[in-house]
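Appendix B, record 7
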Amino acid sequence: MHAFSCVEDYRLAARRRLTKLAFDYLEGGAEDGDALRRNRDAFGQWGFSPRVMTDTSQTSSKTTFWGRDAAAPMAVGPTGLNGLFWPRADELLARAAADAGLPFVLSTASTSLLEDVRAAVPHGELWLQLYVQQDRRIAESMMRRARKAGFRTLMLTVDTPVHGKRDHDTRNGFRLPLRFTPRLVADCMRHPHWSWQMLMGGAPQLRNIARSVGERADLARHAAMLSRQMDLSLSWDDLAWVRRHWPGEVLVKGILSVDDARQAQAHGADGIVVSNHGGRQLGSTLAPVEALPMIVEALSAGGRGGPAMSVFVDGGVRRGADVAKAVALGAKGVLLGRAPLYGVAARGARGVAGVLELMLGELRTTMQLLGCASVDDLTPQRLARLPALRS
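Structure tokens (predicted):
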């Protein structure tokens, strides 16, 4: 059996197993992929400044999110259409997260019902990511169902009023439901394992949306609703509407500017996610980890304009060392997007568990090498901005 030593190994295995259409959907960014590449490269701007001769015999990566324990400052973040990579992928992701002691964030565009995800992890920490469509009754239904199922935190995604331009999907003829062109059929024949699983498991459906719309699953219709019927009128004042329907914590996801972070604070959000949607929306933006320090500094400057907030970040996280850097730069936690998907796409449940185990192990090793016995020891003093290398 091939030994997986890092997340990149799972990425390569996922690439071998998936058809080009499915892998490009997982991997691709918007337009020329500038933001996607920057997300990953930006972590290399900082190097570590370790301290030695410190007692790290009892090093722990544990933290809390709103008083609830987590094994590390990480959560498995929201990703849509995961059933394209493995049958019932959302349940597998949620179960692996729960087993690892981490929260799992279920996407509005999930291919499993939120009720089924809860049944798969009766005691797991579950959060709901929410898109708001023109018919707000859909979002209200989603929130009502999630509350009943014991989801704790709501993650309102605000950076997707329209879908970004994804050239790879256009080239591959990616449409929902999938149309079996001669090229796709030939690709399926080259990937028999994936094709057999899709055949036996059935085509993925946007089941959560279908349930809240009150219709039978219809992938073409419900995918169109997500891409063409988002609520373009959504504004900061609508956080009050969200609060009326959600009693738990509310995070605003998709923040890249200090001004927007302050708006979220002033309107009473419990936290934000500094994010550019994995580089899948605007083709060229700051990497979230680049925007993180200035946003954290602005929000901590006397707490002006609103209550204290938790700041999360995502984008390009592939190593436990990346998590350590993000926390040292002020993040309360990191959302893992593609990394767990590489795991599930490569090996199903074993793959997700393997990715999370790797990242937890890497984080603890990094902390010990830095001389950090706890997450609280990950401070800006443990980082140094690196000079550009000469070619």
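Remarks on this record: The chain has one domain: 7-380. The longest strand covers residues 249-255.
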